[in-house]
Amino acid sequence: MFNKSKKAIETLNRHLSELDSISNVRQGNNWKASLKDTLDLYIGPDSSLSTRLDGLYFTRKESYVPEGVIGLFTNHVYDESLKENFKDLINNAIKHIQSNGIFKDSARKNFLGQFGNTEIISGLVVAAGLIYGIGNYFGKLEKDREVFQSEKLKEKMESQIQNLQSEKNLTIKEYDDFRLKSTKTIDSLQNEINKLKESNKKK
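^ thats the sequence. predicted structure below, dont judge the formating
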């Protein structure tokens, strides 16, 4: 926390140094926007110092009457002396941080609020490693499951091939048995026919 307070004071002192180089309204408005972000971050967006900054400007109002025109007009003119108001504000902000530390956002209820950027980044790296490891582990499980399924499919196909081969062998055997039996029957019939022929000749 001390390091953050030191960084906040260094940032505000840098704004003080940059303030001296401002020479027009455009530069002043850009610088003011940056200072506003710094105060909101380190002191709080609802602090009186941050609210007071909204009411500070680099211009003053000047009234004039244009030539040939009836009426009073107001113009905003850049005023170098108004820088002192910003310097006072920044010095008060530095004193506030030295006495009270930097702003703590009570609305942040998530547990990451108690860690610094370095700790959060380290935690994210570890988490990323765990996610990769878990993903790799489940990836291997999925691959093993696919290999197992492939093996089961291979075994099933081999079993079907064996069944078909057995059916084929059985069919061939049945055919051979039928052909042998038919041959025997034909031979027997042929013998009977020959015997009849011999008998007829004798008569």
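Residues 158 and 171 are 20 Å apart (CA to CA).
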